[in-house]
Design brief:
298 residues; alpha/beta; TIM Barrel; 12 helices; 13% strand; globular
Amino acid sequence: MIDARAVALRDRLRWRLVAAAATPSTATGTVVPTVVGAYLRRLVADGADALAVLAHTGRGPFLAEPLRADIIRQAVRTGVPVVVGVGGRAGERTEEVAGQAVQAAELGAAGVLVFPETDDPIRHHEAVWRAAGLPMLAFDLYLRPYPADVVTRLLDHPGVAGVKVARLHDAVACQRVLSAANRAGRLAVTGEDRMFGPSLMWGAQAALVGLAAAAVPVTAAVLRAFADKEYAEFVTASERLDRLAGVTFTDPMDGYVQRMLWIAAAEQRIPDRYAVDPFGPTLPADDRERVLRVLAAL
């Protein structure tokens, strides 16, 4: 049976765009909370209905607790629902992840996105839930996908409001998990930047995507058109979004964070010196020009 707190988050996020925000940083890893705050406010002003901070796009697993707290505070001040990424660090203990969830609850977050855990995901989610009491989004990620039976058990947990599906190139798995979420009465959340439009047709009823770390209106237009049953507009908007995804979510795949930061700087959401992902891979020399050329065409 689903807990009332999970019901509230599920219903609050249905047909909403949750921007998986980046964390603007200098090349040396300096993060200035006021720069983060201004960036987050721009995402909301441009159409993000909610924010996900400290998730993969925000490099949450790499950031220390005091900085995580500053970023959560800035997000909460925007006034929209805030989902905080918890976990994702190599060798972490469940108690540490639960502590991150407690911090998120104390700072006013609406929920947590729980990074995949492979040893005992049911116990892991239960510990996070008991510690913080915040509704959870489970996370089915292509790098560490959950078996079908584990997804079913997670969707039975009272504190799980929904599941974010990010299977990248496995359309069958994406469809299976979205269907399971809908059958369980939980929110089916697409995290499919490269299958965004199709995932809505397969049953997703909300989006939490790194594509909305910048160029928010391009992503929002697809979700809005589908939710409003404006299908001709949906097809046109999806084509535009796919063009952007094709140059941002491409090999090396983890370079998408840097590419979205370039776009954010081009849109004047952040100063150029903060448009750096110090944790990402080295990208081809012409990557920035290629990305911004497509952005300009859109």
